[in-house]
Write a structure and sequence with these properties.
- It is a multi-pass membrane protein.
- It is found in: Cell membrane.
- One of its GO terms (molecular function) is transmembrane transporter activity.
- The protein is mainly alpha-helical.
- The protein has one domain: Up-down Bundle (Growth Hormone, Chain: A), CATH 1.20.1250.20.
- Helix content is 76%, strand content 0%.
């Protein structure tokens, strides 16, 4: 297929769904009563949010405490870094390899299998028990495969179901559900763990996560089959980056910077909270407070953000979540960690919603681009994962070379400022 060169950062948006083509499982506007431009979400969008919410709840129940459990068994921060690195490597490779399956076959099978493999991961943790730290590499790979299968299919379906006029609203609701899950589930887990002897609480919450994943599979059966379109282009991402004037030359490094921060902070902060307090209940309370703030912030951001407000919102969010790290230079304790958590929860939506919505708007900028949505979603995830892996490798090196808390603080500030670099790359694209 001949490739049309991009006009520099020009985004004529092509609506997903390809209405009128033979074999379409779902038209561009599944709900004919929904008016274009109103920002309303249809039934399939709400169902996709439900499935995503269950996936997030299951991970929130145990994901916060898997790293704590592994650390308690090993007392080795570098080992947790290796667990995260194996997860990230498997996730990226799964995205790339499963791209063909999702594009040329049934993407819903990928989404459901991702939830099933997530359940298998927790079965393995239950089976291994205290021996789990000896198998962190394999466990990280299994969890990465599960996440890759689910999020690849989810992101493609998300693109097909949403449109530019309701994408910010969908992302706001997705953040709202994520914050709600992050508020209630870890608190419940911390309560149960702290009330049960030894590791019985951990075994219980891992079992609960397994059950929620299975419920999510059942709900996903009600998502309609999506249309299969075209053949998968394995090296599409490389071709995009080699094309002069392509906006992806800016989007990819911006995503890598986003991933660099995410890859480290997603596990380091919860570990620091637990190491500082030695109490799972306090970690649960930390998640409850920060997620409550995040829920409120995502709600407001989802209602306020519009495409024309993305540039200042993203810059402001990037600066403020970077400044939230500065209390660590006084002392790393529960109070300063809570200040950091509240600050990030308040301002992260200003950064992440414009980032996510803009990238998916570019995927739908014209008919040809939308037809290669799977390849673009894979490119997006590979860029994020390259950043995550780079950040995690740096974390492992820093932890291995120095135990000085000041060195770790400087490293966190360095990694934490990556969103500002991300905005620098995205500012022309956001226009």
């Amino acid at each position: 297929m001949q490739h049309t060169k991009h006009k520099r950062f020009s985004v004529p948006v092509y609506q997903a769904g390809f209405p009128g083509n033979p074999g379409d499982a779902i038209p561009s506007h599944p709900n004919p009563r929904r008016k274009r431009g109103t920002g309303q979400l249809d039934r399939q969008s709400i169902l996709l949010l439900t499935v995503q919410g269950l996936f997030v709840v299951a991970n929130a129940l145990s994901g916060t405490f898997v790293n704590v459990y592994l650390w308690k068994m090993s007392r080795n921060l570098a080992l947790i870094g290796w667990f995260a690195l194996c997860h990230q490597a498997a996730l990226g490779l799964t995205f790339w390899l499963a791209g063909r399956w999702v594009k040329e076959h049934n993407k819903m099978h990928s989404l459901r299998l991702g939830m099933l493999v997530s359940a298998i991961f927790y079965l393995l943790v239950l089976f291994l028990g205290p021996k789990a730290p000896h198998y962190v590499y394999g466990l990280g790979i299994v969890q990465g495969i599960a996440a890759g299968l689910f999020w690849l299919a989810y992101n493609v379906v998300y693109f097909e179901i949403t449109e530019p006029h309701n994408r910010d609203r969908f992302n706001g609701w997705a953040g709202l559900l994520g914050a709600g899950a992050g508020m209630a589930a870890p608190w419940l887990s911390g309560y149960l763990i702290s009330r049960m002897a030894e590791t019985k609480g951990y075994m219980l919450i891992f079992s609960l996560s397994l059950g929620v994943f299975l419920v999510g599979v059942v709900f996903s059966l009600f998502l309609k089959k999506r249309r299969v379109d075209g053949s998968y282009e394995w090296l599409h991402g490389i071709r995009c980056l080699r094309e002069p004037g392509s906006p992806w030359r800016r989007i990819v490094p911006a995503l890598a910077m986003q991933g660099m921060r995410e890859g480290v902070f997603i596990f380091v902060i919860t570990l620091l909270v637990f190491i500082s307090t030695g109490n799972e209940m306090k970690l649960g309370n930390y998640s409850l407070i920060t997620s409550a703030v995040s829920l409120f912030a995502f709600y407001l951001a989802g209602r306020w953000l519009r495409p024309k407000r993305r540039i200042p919102a993203m810059l402001l969010g990037a600066i403020l979540i970077t400044l939230a790290i500065t209390p660590f230079f006084w002392e790393v304790n529960y109070t300063t960690l809570l200040i950091f958590g509240i600050g990030v929860s308040l301002f992260h939506p200003l950064y992440i919603i414009p980032m996510t919505s803009t990238v998916f708007d570019f995927i739908g900028r014209d008919e040809e681009s939308a037809a290669q949505r799977v390849e673009y979603v894979v490119l997006r995830e590979l860029a994020l994962n390259a950043g995550r892996m780079a950040g995690t490798i740096l974390f492992i090196l820093v932890i291995s070379l120095s135990k000085d808390p000041r060195v770790l603080n400087l490293f966190l500030l360095f990694i934490g400022s990556a969103p500002i670099v991300s905005w620098f790359f995205m500012r022309a694209v956001l226009k």
